[in-house]
# Entry
Amino acid sequence: MTGLMVSFTTGAAAAPKVARVGPDHYTGTWLEIGRTPMFLTDGCVAGYSTYRRGETPDEVLVEDGCHVDTPKGRLKTVNGTGKIEDFGTTNAKMRVRYPLLITFNYWVLYKSPDKTWFISANPSMKDLWIYSRTVPSKARLQRMVRKARELGYDVSKLEFPAAR
# Structure
């Protein structure tokens, strides 16, 4: 599941540069288009993250979900509470706390000029995700992967689970 991934960063490598995102970024549903494989996402397809505003301006309520094996398979979800750690500057660094003391850092590294897709990673760039508001065409997917490569990510590590 997209949000169930846990990362513990050592800080050995330089942190990537983040994008600037507006408040609209943390509203609505984003479809997971590509991701770094992890045991927690094995069998997960048609993944998504839905964001809603929390009680404070820097709080985001997060629902991460996916379907098991096929886009029509059983739905699995997990809810977390995010805090935008650089609120008021780039708004790109969010730390999400999930049940069982699982915490994950999501940094928005790139947001498309039309604001319909973005790339996020953890600070070490070990884990990377590509999200979109809609299922992309093949040409757009190629642009997304090319952008991830330009950001310094080894795109040969990406998997592209079936979308909705």
Observations:
- The radius of gyration is 15 Å.
- Residues 1-12 have pLDDT under 50 and may be disordered.
- The beta strands are 28-35, 44-53, 59-68, 75-84, 93-98, 102-111, 117-121, 128-132.
